[in-house]
Amino acid sequence: MCIDLRPLNQRIHPQKFRFPLIDDQLDQLHGKCVFTKLDLRDGFHQIKIYPEDTKYFAFATHKAQFEYTRVPFGYSEAPVEFQKRLFNILKELLKDGILLYIDDILIPTATIEENLKVLKEVLFTLKRYKLKLNLAKCLFLKKKIEFLGYMVSADGITMSSRHIQAIIDFPQPKTVKEVQSYLRLTSYFRRFIRDYAVKAKPLAALTKKNAKFNFDKDCVDLFELLKKELTSAPVLHIYNPSAATELHTDASMHGFGAILLQKQKYSNWAPIAYFSKATTDTEKRYHSYELETLAIVKAIERFHVYYRA
Fold it and tell me: Looking at 154, 174, 197, which one is the last position of a domain?
């Protein structure tokens, strides 16, 4: 059952809470090659509502009025509340490298023995707090696993097969909303391709206020180009704090680009991530050396976490 909680959501003051950054989560997977992922059953429904607050979650049918006693789907603060509670429950195990993202718990380790040890501790803690798992969605001791939309393994990070298929199957946009949906889908994986922002800029222009929608041949070509590059994207290696690192940048009047590279043990330099940003109308008028300098600044801002480390 699903109820319309918009009237309640409009009266809620959002909590100040910072979800884990996806890049930070992925960076913690360096050196890990055994993965277990646990899925909590009916996630939000495992959070009890205080008895004095159930009245705010009331709804009526033709037979009677009811009140939710557990957090329902559709409540705007549910993801934040769930993440906070799960963090508090498992915070003592974060030192073992477990990763939490809403109702997903990832246990990445270097060996099977380590994985089983941490798994036992996690299961014991979940049982103590009466949290239940959806065993059909749990994966144990895998060499490769999907996490946050990516496939991760000891070899690195790739796009998940279901997202690759979603991009392949995406039809040519006929409306502004369809262009927006395509850009949301592809932008999530922009770290995989060079100059994404520059290539996507003409499509993004179609979504601007008062812009005339004309999905011409150039837009069709760009739409297909992004599809091709994303569905054949390279494996990105996971950042290694001990490896030699280089940052390559480039710039033009259309945008800025960068690639973070690291020297691999048994191979040449390999990509960690790509970065790109389209130029503003003001930046387009900069001299070439100013654009090149600004590209360095923007790239360092994007990858500053690695250089500070």
Answer: 154
Question: pLDDT (tens digit, 0 to 9) for every residue of the chain, 309 residues total?
Answer: 677 888 888 888 888 888 888 889 999 999 999 999 999 988 788 888 888 989 988 888 888 888 888 888 888 888 888 899 899 999 999 999 999 998 889 999 999 999 999 999 999 999 999 999 999 999 999 999 999 999 999 999 999 999 999 999 999 999 999 999 999 999 999 999 999 999 999 999 999 988 899 999 999 999 999 999 999 999 999 999 999 999 999 999 999 999 999 998 877 899 999 999 999 999 999 999 999 999 999 999 999 988 775
CB atoms near residue 178 (< 10 Å)? 14
DSSP class of residue 71? P
What pTM was estimated for this model as a whole? 0.86
- 81, 172: one domain: no
Please check whether residue 143 lies inside any domain of the structure. yes
What letters, b where the CB count within 10 A reaches 16 and e where it falls short, cover 100-133?
bbbbbbbbbbeeeebbeebbeebeeebeeeebeb
Encode 155-165: b = buried (16+ Cβ within 10 Å), e = exposed.
ebbbbbeebbe
259's enclosing H/E stretch is: strand 255-263
Last residue of a domain, one of 121, 154, 187: 154
Whether residue 193 sits in one domain with residue 134: no
Q: Any bridge partners for residue 156, and if so which? A: 153
Q: Which helix (H) or strand (E) holds 203?
A: helix 196-205
